[in-house]
Amino acid sequence: MSWFARIVNVLRAGKLGQELDEELNFHLAERVDELVAGGMARDEARLEALRRFGNVTVHKERTRDVNVERILDLAVSDLRYAIRQLRLAPGFAAVAVLSLALGIGANTAIFQLIDALRLRSLPVQDPWELAAIDTAPDFYTSGNYRSRNRPLLTRSSNNCGCTSRHFRTCSHLETSGLT
Amino acid sequence: MSKPKNDVLQGTLTLLVLRVLHARGPMHGYAICNHIQSVSSDLLRVEEGSLYPALHRMEQEGWLASSSGVTEKGRKAKFYSITKSGLLQLEAEKESWSRLIRGVSRVLRYS
């Protein structure tokens, strides 16, 4: 059986089980027919067929195990082969392992950073109600200027007491060093 | 339940199945089972359930190939046939069987 067929077998384990059921049921049905032809009552023949077959569930599981065991055996021997090949070329193995390690390490580090900064919601009560408020440079502050999305604050008013008074809809204000 | 004493020895089942399929062409499990029994004039009885794990193992080893077909009664069945590597295995098993026979009979005769 080819590698491809084995992989397909793993993926369609349910279908394989069904085929096995069909195969065993066929056997039992044939045996029943033969016993009935020999003059036995059908019910009795059914029992006799099962008795001769032995424990159907056990045999079914053993047959299934044969297929699974084989796949595991192959995986283990492939692993051994891979290790042997790597031993033959330790320089290549070291480079391969090192580049994999660096690649995986860098990916994980960047992901953790992005995850903490952007993906996770901030540890506040209702994160979806958060709004960002920023200060505009001082020279925009004359007149009634508003930046596109952000309410106007001057640097001089950038303290919590002042802005809380200006924005009554906000329940809480946090200052951030990033702005 | 006491097992019948003439159960096929573990290990010889492979030899028997390969031989039967080689001689008779593609067969399904039930036919293999009956064939072994009748050719050996009931001296050998294949434990029916354990035939199937053996057949599947042999298929995994690449000694047998299987295809689904329809019996003369119109039932769907899985037919097994012997492959090239199965033929090689058959020769190897025959050889080791006759060695076993020779060994055992020598011990029986000369001890």
Number of strands of chain B: 3
Secondary structure: number of strands of chain A? 0
Structural class of chain A: mainly alpha
Shape of chain A: elongated
Distance between the termini of chain A: 65 Å
Q: Rough shape of chain B?
A: globular
> Roughly how many Å is the radius of gyration of chain B?
15 Å
Number of helices of chain B: 4
Parts with pLDDT < 50 across at least 5 consecutive residues of chain B: 1-5
**Which two chains touch over the largest interface?**
A-B, 27 and 21 residues
Percent of residues in β-strands of chain B: 5-15%
Number of helices of chain A: 6
Q: Output the structural class of chain B.
A: alpha+beta
Any idea how many domains of chain B?
1
Describe the oligomeric state of these chains in a short phrase. Answer: heterodimer
Overview of this structure, please?
The complex is a heterodimer of chains A (179) and B (111). By secondary structure, chain A is an all-alpha fold. In chain A, 65% of the residues lie in helices and 0% in strands. In chain B, a hairpin with a 5-residue loop joins strand 2 and strand 3. In chain B, helix 1 packs across helix 4. The longest helix of chain B has 27 residues. The N terminus of chain B is likely disordered. At the A-B interface, helix 2, helix 3 and helix 4 of A face helix 2, helix 3 and strand 3 of B.
At a glance:
The complex is a heterodimer of chains A (179) and B (111). By secondary structure, chain A is mostly helical. Chain A is 65% helix and 0% strand.
List the helices and strands and how they pair.
The complex is a heterodimer of chains A (179) and B (111).
Chain A: H1 3-11, H2 13-37, H3 42-53, H4 56-88, H5 90-119, H6 160-166
Helix pairs in contact in A: 2-3, 2-4
Chain B: H1 12-24, E1 27-28, H2 29-39, H3 48-61, E2 64-70, E3 76-82, H4 84-110
Antiparallel strand pairs in B: 1-3, 2-3
